[in-house]
Amino acid sequence: MASHNLLYLPGDGIGPEVMAEVKKIVAWMNAQGIAKFETDQGLVGGSAYDAHGKAVSDADMDKAQAADAVLFGAVGGPKWDKVPYDVRPEAGLLRLRKDLGLFANLRPAICYPALADASSLKKNVVEGLDILIVRELTGGVYFGEPKTITDLGNGQKRGIDTQVYDTFEIERIARVAFELAKTRKNKVSSAEKRNVMKTGVLWNEVVTRIHKDEYPTAQLEHVLADNCAMQLVRWPKQYDVIVTDNLFGDVLSDVAAMLTGSLGMLPSASLGAPDAKTKRRKSLYEPVHGSAPDIAGTGAANPIAMIASFGMALRYSLNMGEWADKLDAAISAVLAQGLRTRDIASDAAPANATTTQMGEAILRELQKVA
Ligand code: IPM
Ligand code: MG
Questions:
Q1: Tens digit of pLDDT for each residue in 199-258?
Q2: Which end of the chain has fewer CB atoms at under 10 Å, N or C?
Q3: Helix (H, G, I), strand (E, B), or coil: what is residue 215?
Q4: 254 lines ligand 1 (CB under 6 A)
Q5: Residue 172 Cα to ligand 1 middle (Å)
């Protein structure tokens, strides 16, 4: 059996708590001989800053480069609000994305049947929802230069961020979206703001060409990003795959998360280009939610997004798609049984599980189908 090398980067706040539930699943899979995971752990975010004054150390970056999959929890918290900008907790995550070349971020928003009542939207709007946001992750305004605040000397300052996209960056993310669409309903909605942004004009042009030349059988539509946000809360089931830039993808995926009932439900996968020789892609898996410092240590955190992120690692990096399906089924079963952390509770199904209880119930379900 091939061995896989996993790097845990639990981070801050609820990160370590939700990661603990993944570790139990990994330990069980090892003990059963289902897989051979070699695991290592590093620091990222505020915890890394406290240890060595950086948001992620070079040594941990080397481990991340070598891993078959990086499992990332969450970073940040009020404790580090005042640390210098370039070593703020989020800088660790951005360095991982950039240095590992993880340009494709997959954020599937699935509304589990049992949670159709937990969304703030009407049940018929979200029931059966299954959409995938493909977010460009290493370009755009997150990384564009110049990125500065300058003193204008007249009591005014000027803040500048730069949105930049080159053709190749749009081509490769479009291809990821069209390829994934093939495995689904084969429909891609490309979201940009071509009405006010040059990057939007180029985005639209490149996606249109990739569609015409390489994926003519897919259905492609273009949607303005603001309209896409509105459509997501009006009638999200019109979408299959949404492809969009780094900043719009950040915003639209938070909207999509709430359609599933809670931010605590949304996993994500960040993938690089396949290596020319080994075909292996660098990868990092993280829940879309943040470090939730307000509930850290209380047992209220929902581990499902983190566990489902591990499921995506099984599917996209470890060639264990069958186990990813089993894990998804275990999550679905536990929800159907009525288990709820606070964030996914409703009048009909009140909160009745801590982080650990939820994680262990999912593991027990997985053990049943094994
Ligand atoms: C996300 C987060 C990050 C982002 C933050 C923590 C830097 O919001 O992954 O959606 O903006 O990309
Ligand atoms: Mg975000």
A1: 999 999 999 999 999 999 999 999 999 999 999 999 999 999 999 999 999 999 999 988
A2: N
A3: coil
A4: no
A5: 21
